Amino acid sequence: MKIRGAIALVTGANRGLGRAFLRHLREAGCAKVYAGVRQLESLGAGIENAVQLDITDPEQVAAAAARCQDVDLLINNAGVAKFTPLLGSPTVDNARAEMETNYFGTLEMCRAFAPILKQNGGGALVNVLSVVSWFNAPMQGSYCASKSAEWSLTKAVRFELRNQGTLVAGVHAGYIDTEMVAALTDPKTSPDDIVNRVLAGIEHGDEEILADERSETLRAELLGNYAPFESAMQQTWDEYQRRITR
Fold it and tell me: Catalytic residue positions?
C-alpha cells in the first residue's frame, strides 16, 4: 500500500520508536496519523489526533476502534520489556505483564481493527516484533516468550486476513536506540533507520520486514525458507473457511 494519503494509527506513540513512526508517517504524506498512548499528557504539546489507548484495556481498545473508523494502516508498536529470566524472577508478574501487552494486547488490537481495515479497502496491519521472536535469550526469557507468541499470532492473523486484502507485516529488529534499552551497551540502531525500513517494506508489500543488520544476520542463520510451508497453511485455512461457510 501507499503511505501517502493513508490514515494511520500508531500505538505506544509517546516515545522511542512510536514517536519516530508519528514523525515519519506525517513526513511521508499520511492524510492523518492517530497517536495511541496510555496517558495523553505523555505526548506533550502539538500532537494532533491523540487517542487514549492502553492496549491491555479492552474498553479502551473498543473506544479507539469506534473513533478511528477511517484507519487503513495500523502500527501495533506498543510493548513492554521487563528483562527478567523465567525462573530467576521472584514472581511471574513480569511474565504476565509482558504477555498481557505484547500478546493479548496486540491480539485485541488486531481483532478490533481487522473489520475496519476491511471496510477501508484492506490496508495494512504491522506488528512490531523482535529478533527474539526467533530464539530465547534466557536473561530476558519471559520477554522472548511473549515476542515468540506475538510472532505466531502475526502469522495466524495473516492467514485469516489475506483474503480481505490486508497486508499483515511482522517487523524484526535487534536493539533499537530507545529508552527501553538505554541501560544496555550493545550496538543499537536508530529509530529513524528502523522506521524508514518499515515504511519501505509496507510500500513494497513485504510480510516480513527485517529492519536492521542484526535481523538480517539472524534470519539467515536461524531460519530456512519456510515460505512453502506457510503457503500450505494458507491453503489449509482457505479450505477450512470454505467448509464452514457452505
Answer: 143
Contact 56, 64 (CB under 8 A): no
Does residue 210 lie in a domain region? yes
pLDDT, one tens digit per residue, over 123-146 is: 999 999 999 999 999 999 999 999
CATH of residue 51: 3.40.50.720
Report the number of distinct structural domains present in the chain: 1
HSE of 68, CA atoms in CB hemisphere, 13 A: 32
Q: Report yes or no: 234 and 163 within 8 Å, Cβ to Cβ.
A: no
Structural domain including 234 reads 7-244
Residue type, 170: G
Region of residue 148 (left: phi > 0; alpha: psi -120 to 50; beta: else): alpha
175: its cell numbers: 536493539
- pLDDT confidence of 184, banded at 50, 70, 90? low
